[in-house]
Amino acid sequence: MKKELPKVYEPQEVESRVYETWEKNGCFKGHRDPERKPFTIVMPPPNVTGQLHMGHAMDCALQDILIRFKRMEGYAALWVPGMDHAGIATQIKVEEELRTKEGLTRYDLGREKFLERVWDWKHKYGDRIVKQQKKMGVSCDWDRARFTMDEGCSKAVREVFCSLYEKGLIYKGSRIINWCPHCVTALSDAEVEYQDKPGYFWHIRYPIQGEEGRYVIVATTRPETMLGDTGVAVHPDDERYKDIVGKKCILPLVGREMPIVADEYVDMEFGTGCVKMTPAHDPNDFEVGLRQNLETIRVLDDNGKVVEGYGKYSGMDRYEARKAIVADLEEQGYLVKVEPHQHNVGTCYRCHSDVEPIISAQWFVKMAPLAKEAIRVVEEGETKFVPDRFSKTYLNWMENVHDWCISRQLWWGHQIPVWYCDDCGHMTVSREDACECEKCHSKNIHRDPDVLDTWFSSALWPFSTLGWPEKTEDFEYFYPTDVLVTGYDIIFFWVARMIFSSCEHTGKAPFHTVLIHGLVRDDKGRK
């Protein structure tokens, strides 16, 4: 009996059956073949936080076209799939679910139990992402699927951290970092998005000690941080203020005596030529503070609230404190004037809260030595951007890159492999979990609670997915990879970090071509 063709195309029945046939026959498997030239693509790993969107579909379609074409040309083609653990995004999602469904916080569960919940989330949503990719027909080698926190990738992360530390390229130090009070974690420079926002310049009188009726006028866009002022700076060539350099002024509302210092950082032509110094809450003030030996006083805690010791302001949210401080300055006669001011405000790329520059002890990667080779491979054409104009975007960032803050105050992620001795204070950095202090052999040690920036592990993606640091057959045959396909929005976050990491740890650029595509946006222009 003849089977009738359906009157309409039924993709649910046809496409699933076809894809299963492809998989069953190993059509997508990447085979090492010394007689053939390899062609490798590593998939930009989608975050495990939910489901795929149209941007993923476009990105996958472009890679699928390339890999299928190369298979038909006779290459030993390999497309490596995978997922990213997405530290901040995933932890926020799981914490929200805990709060809304059970009324709990991660602290109620404790670190171990909370991480069990996150792994449950990963298994649930990770499976959904793979099913969606298969529905799209992506021709990946699923037997080689990787996750940024699987055993092999975790080993690569440990190796890279320890190697960079041993070379003096990773260090811990107190520096001004970007801090998100909502996500309660440090952010790297690349994770801060700047928005033009309306604000104000508040002009404030600071009385000069011992000279009644005389004062300097400073201006600030963040009056709440004045509680942490420890000095006022003027330019050394500014004739208006030469006679007060070396004297002291009094911090209004607080009564703190502060030195007036001369520093070339100050622009004589801007404002009054007097600049309040808050070394714990401003990167430029921090540098001046180091040169001028100013005290560093942090006045906002991790949640953006005023710390203890400041009377009625203590415990206030930063914006609540701003209103109260401005009102008190006006009442006590210190407020001179208020001017509207449009300025760039740093916001968190995840939650879009205003970021606070705050002094904090964090782990950093020294970028200047790593940037040199990453610049060279693009300048000399070993790695090309398509379209070429994006190479200028890349080079401009790499030539002006700052040290990378890699520690995050989260529980979900690669915990930093550092142990502190409670007896002698020594710091043990180890590829294996430490049981004792390497210096005094005390068992009284505790591990650094922070985790590494998500991008630290995804920066290793082109080689960690192929078995590095082991010299696996896959690594020897398929690395370096050939083409990276991605959007222009993560050139700084990911592309640049893969290039300098690969150059440093494998001695080779990770791919010869970076194909940059646009972003799928909604009717409001949002990606």
What does this structure look like?
By secondary structure, the protein is of the alpha/beta class. The chain folds into three domains: 27-149 and 453-517, Rossmann fold (3-Layer(aba) Sandwich); 194-346, Alpha-Beta Complex (Isoleucyl-tRNA Synthetase, domain 2); 416-449, no CATH class. The chain is 33% helix and 23% strand. The chain is built from 14 helices and 23 strands. It has helices at 11-24, 54-73, 87-102, 106-109, 111-136, 151-166, 283-292, 318-331, 367-379, 389-399, 454-458, 461-464, 473-478, 491-506; strands at residues 38-42, 76-80, 82-83, 146-147, 170-180, 185-187, 192-207, 215-220, 231-234, 248-250, 257-262, 275-277, 335-348, 356-365, 384-386, 404-405, 407-408, 418-421, 427-429, 445-447, 451-452, 483-487, 513-517. The strands form eight sheets. Strands 6-5-14-16 form a four-stranded antiparallel beta sheet. The radius of gyration is 27 Å and the shape is elongated. The chain starts with 10 loop residues before the first helix and ends in a 10-residue tail after the last strand. The model has no long low-confidence stretch (mean pLDDT 93).
Write a brief structural summary:
The chain has 527 residues and is α/β, with parallel strands linked by helices.
As residue ranges, the low-confidence spans are none
Briefly note the CATH topology name of the largest domain.
Answer: Rossmann fold
Please count the beta strands (DSSP E, at least 2 residues each): 23
Alpha carbon gyration radius: 27 Å
Distance between the termini: 52 Å
Shape: elongated
Beta-strand level of the residues, as a percent range? 15-25%
The CATH class of the largest domain: Alpha Beta
Structural class: alpha/beta
Number of helices: 14
Residue share in helices? 25-40%
- Can you list the strand order of the major beta sheet? 6-5-14-16
